[in-house]
Design a protein that fits this description.
CATH superfamily of the largest domain: 3-hydroxy-3-methylglutaryl-coenzyme A Reductase, Chain A, domain 2
Number of domains: 2
Helix content: 40-55%
Number of helices: 9
Radius of gyration: 26 Å
Oligomer: single chain
Number of strands: 5
Order of helices and strands: HHHHEEHEHHHEEH
Strand order of the largest sheet: 3-5-4
Strand content: 25-35%
């Protein structure tokens, strides 16, 4: 009714105001684009966009066998309305038209669909250990009975991650399938360590904990 019409009107006003801010942004020189960002975000260090690149020493600290560095253009995805809040999304890539297309779609969605609605899950990864030829019921019982010991063991080997609020959160088992032999059936079981990796990629940590278990 009236409330729905009022909400739609407010959304159009917000979208129109946002559109006026970024109107012609792609036609401006880089210096003018940065000046606009400084006006919108007064605490922003705009100069870092032009001089912010890795030194050879920094690059060498980040990867093995470093021989140099490659720089990419940094552009802005515009018109993003995410969970009711406007965002400018930095995108570092080399391919033309991607940022323009993303900005165009974001504008369409924000004006006609109310923007993007998103949520995240906890940063928990599953590190898998596979057991072949076991009795699943017996093996699951042993894992369940010792789950806290397994969690404590894992956390004793990732103290830095634990200090950041992450670490092993639990253990679970899965029966994959049965192996038929002449004498009896045996199962293939997966034991999963549930690792909270916080802000890290987590792959190396998950592999390390599975190997140590």
């Amino acid at each position: 009714g009236d409330s729905s019409t009022h909400s739609d009107s407010m959304l159009r006003n917000v979208s129109n105001k946002k559109a006026s801010i970024w109107s012609g942004f792609h036609q401006k020189p880089i210096k003018d684009r940065i000046n606009l960002l400084k006006r919108l975000y007064p605490t922003l260090d705009g100069d870092i966009f032009l001089k912010g690149s890795l030194t050879p020493a920094q690059a060498d600290m980040m990867v093995e066998n470093c021989v140099g560095k490659i720089e990419l253009p940094l552009g802005l995805g515009l018109n993003f309305l995410i969970n009711g809040k406007e965002y400018v999304v930095p995108m570092a890539l080399e391919e033309p038209s991607v940022i323009a297309a993303a900005s165009s779609v974001a504008k369409f969605v924000s004006e006609r669909g109310g923007g993007f609605k998103v949520h995240t899950t906890a940063p928990v990864m599953a590190s898998q250990i596979v057991f072949i030829g076991v009795n699943y019921s017996n093996a699951k019982y042993l894992v369940d009975m010792n789950s806290q010991k397994i969690v404590d063991f894992c956390n004793s080997h990732c103290r830095v991650m634990v200090s950041y609020g992450g670490g092993c959160r639990g253990v679970r088992t899965k029966k994959i399938y049965e192996l038929q032999t002449e004498d009896e059936s045996r199962d293939v079981m997966v034991v999963e360590l549930l690792i909270d990796v916080q802000e890290s990629m987590g792959m190396n940590l998950c592999n390390t904990l599975a190997e140590r278990c």
